[in-house]
Amino acid sequence: MRKTVLITGASTGMGEAATFEYAARDWNVVATMRDTTKVNPAFADLENVLVTRLDVTEIASIGQAVQEAVERFGAIDAIVNAAGYGQVGAVEEISSDQLRDQFETNVVGVVQVIQAVLPHMRERGSGHIINIGSMGGHVSLPTMAVYCASKSAVQSLTEGLSKEVGPLGIHVTLVEPAGYNTGFATNSKLPATSIPAYAPSYASMAAFDKEAVRGDLVKSMAAVVDITGIDEPPLHLAVATAGLEMVRGRFAELMDEYARWEPVTVGTD
Hints:
By secondary structure, the chain is of the alpha/beta class. The protein is built from 9 helices and 7 strands. It has helices at 13-24, 59-73, 96-124, 145-165, 184-187, 199-211, 217-227, 241-260, 262-266, and strands spanning 4-8, 28-33, 49-53, 78-81, 127-132, 170-177, 236-239. It has a 7-stranded parallel β-sheet, with helices on both faces. Helix 4 (145-165) links the parallel strand 5 (127-132) and strand 6 (170-177). Helix 2 (59-73) packs parallel to helix 3 and helix 3 (96-124) packs parallel to helix 4 (145-165). The longest helix has 29 residues, at 96-124.
């Protein structure tokens, strides 16, 4: 019997790639997106794919998409929270509205989708929630601090959620990618203002982006499909080794810093 996965953000990037990979492995796929006019026309050739509207910032649209999924396929075995975007800009340049919008989509939106699907999974005593995070959740970058902060929040939410729903038979995985040739940069939003003092940070990020080792999007999403619904999936799954090396270096720096200042820490006991 086919299993069913609901994917948010399926019009571009990881959500779009995941749709093809799940469908190729005989899953029913509920490919959701904020604007269904932007759907990949090739989805029409996949008989087991239902395309429907879902805006993660609109609770009513989330509920409607979940209802359609259950009515069409009978159950939701997994969800992939891939919807999101990047807010670019130094912290001083970001407006309060841009900050709120970033967290409304990347964090609150993830929670709202989970809340809509969890009662269904809890009743069945099974399910797999997959949140697309980022290595930026571990390693914050200049002019990307607001985006990275949102992914840090997703990381903490995912880890806490796993402890809440694990006893109920529901698995949770945080997928942590690094750089890919997707529409991420195109879909990113620019800062509210431009302050010349931060120009060097933009230049360094542009150089990093140009030189970064890119992960293979198809292979990465295939790996995600492979761990979906298995008996003991990982809580954290890194995809693209460049990001993993970044995080290893960051953790080493963090522990070194803690060690240097441990005499001060001990003095606070």
